[in-house]
Predict the structure.
Amino acid sequence: MPALDLATSATIVWRHKFVAATLIILGLAGNTAYTLAQPEAYTSSAYIMLPATANLKDQVIVATSVPVLADALSTGHLGLSLETLRNRVTAAAENAPKISITGEGPTADQAEQTANAVTRSYLSYVTSTRNPAGPQAVTLLQLASTTKAKPLTTRVYQAAGIGLLGGALVALIAILAIWRGDRRLRTRDAIADSMWVPVLASVQARGPHKKAGWTALLREYAPGAVDAWQLDRVLRGLGVPPEAGWSGSRSVAVLSVSGDRDALALGPQLAAFATAQGISAALTVGRIPEPKAATALQVANQACTDDKPAPAVTVIVDGDAEAPQAAAGTRGEVAVVAVTAGVVTADRLARVVAGAARSGLRLAGAVVINPCPSDLTTGRLPQLARSGQQGMPTRMTSVATGRGK
């Protein structure tokens, strides 16, 4: 499992940002709803004067420390657990050398009782020899006697903040725990490196699930300007159209791995695009492990090939290219591998390359389907070729020459 650093963790979380957003929203909404369902909260405060030399921040910590709260539980008969009492008591430094101890409860009496029990326990602790700093002269200014209801808006804001932080923490831990070991390839460079062939183009594609969708793709496919340019690059990389004066029929194979439905659509897209460019093209359906997809594509292809002239180019679709032995029909002169970003691992692509080599196919390159928007790599050069490139010369300025003026 790869080691995690800040950049890698941020990339994984951003890749699954919709999952993270869902968990954060659930945490925020859940905690807010739970708070709204709880009875109204009351607060009451007591005040204690401290010596002028006292450190107010330290005394705030002491007022809510375990020894003080434990004594308050035993002497005040609050009937609460230590953790519950900790959540119901707060201490704060005031503008004069004094602190306030505030208790919270579902009723006014419980709020007063909680604040006063902790206040008495604090006074007993700081004026006794148990205090590590020694007994201190502190004065009780006022016990908790008045209560006020905690505003609903304050409760909602606090609950929303806690839910937001809790949801974010759960999302971070869950996403990193589940997807830390994800080895699927998402960048063009990673795909090119795994097969040692360049990426010819990047195309948007969606594999239909039914016959009507495949029929519409074969008959009505009209790519946008960007995808049209990318498909034109693929055809030229595969030697289509044939050279001037060439006669006969050229065949190309479009390989993909089983389960990559969107990559399966590249072959039909290439055939439809070539036909739209005036190149007579036919589609041959090879192995497709998914029976429903295979049947739907075969029926749609049969319906779209009636009364067509002899093809100059035959596009062969192989949706199970990682199998040990290629099907008899997959005998193109040249092949291209279609890979959907974030779907296939390097191991599976290696099996595709091995299968193509055993079938005698010349692998021209890869086509990345639905590339990640954050991927800024090109995949045009394999790893060693990229690392062997020399950087451009740079102009150095402000360099001492060692010569005197």
Remarks:
- The domain at 188-382 is CATH 3.40.50.300 (Rossmann fold).
- The chain has three domains: 6-37+154-179, 42-149, 188-382.
